[in-house]
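Appendix C reproduces, verbatim, an entry submitted by the partner laboratory led by Prof. M.T., so that reviewers can inspect both the input and the predicted structure.
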Amino acid sequence: MGKQRLGIGKRRSKSVEKPESEAKSSGNYIDTFVKRMFGRVLVFSDFLVNYADAEFLAEIDLKKIMPAPTHYIGQKGDERIVDLVFQCPLKSGGNLMAVIVFEHQNRSLKKIPRKLHKYISSIWDAETKEGKKVLSAPYFIVLRTGRKPHRGPKPVMSDSLPKGRNGKPLGKKVEIDYDVVDLPAWEFDQLVGGPVLRLAMGILKKMLEGDEDEWPEALLPLREISDEEQRIELTKELLEFVANAFAAHNRRLDEAMLSRALKPIFKDKERFMIATIFEEREARSRAEGVAEGEVRGEARGKVLAILQNRFRKVPKATEKAVRAMVDVTALQSLAVHAETCQSLEEFAVVLK
């Protein structure tokens, strides 16, 4: 794959400090991106074919892979699996649950063994409750996206358990094996798989390397997609991710530079396509803003209506404070207090 590089936007000055919420928002857009891209059955299957164990692949029916039912994943917050889980029917009967665990930063894999025990226990509990006699076998792949590849032996559960005088773990070891795939160790010409899989991994790699200004190489697989409509829709989806990534760093996409970057892919149609993308983003943002404003207004109105119904007259300072609130969740909580408080003075204390 070619080594052509095109700049997009201006590199952020190193002197600009990141806002306190940046790490959290960055994680959110990365989580959303990987789940949206790798959550597609075709992309997930493509990833397994190219990066999973050959013995495992020989036993499953790739044509029948499907996302795991939600009740396999668990409903409670302490059980819910936040990574991707797919049900892979075995050729010999039964199922195998394939789970991709995403590690986005330079973290060690120390917590992975406990996480995997928790995941498969949740799946087995759900299957037992629905009367399955043969439970699903687990297959775990940890996809690391840290800047440095994992080195040394993979952490195991016994690392966290007591050891005897001879240094060996006490009790019976209960281990779950897993594969580790290191994204940062790859170069673009080493990425394998179909164009959508390589696009997903390439964009992810560029963003997590902090190399947002130079990512045309990651877009080059778009040229392999013959269906123009699919190619355009996929580009929109990828640019949505890039735009969110830039926003998390207090930046925005530069349309002129973006047009030059996409010209090798779309030739003379990139200007019209990019204009359409930005118009759609602006229209969607306006619509979301209006909808959010309506919900916020209804929540404020509900709080004030409860207070007026219970205490007749609401002090102007209290009304002003309620109308100034923008957090819908906080307003909903405030409505509960408005219904249960014994006086306006008590409500005012909660309001502060």
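Residues 278-351 form one domain. Additional entries are available on request from the coordinating office.
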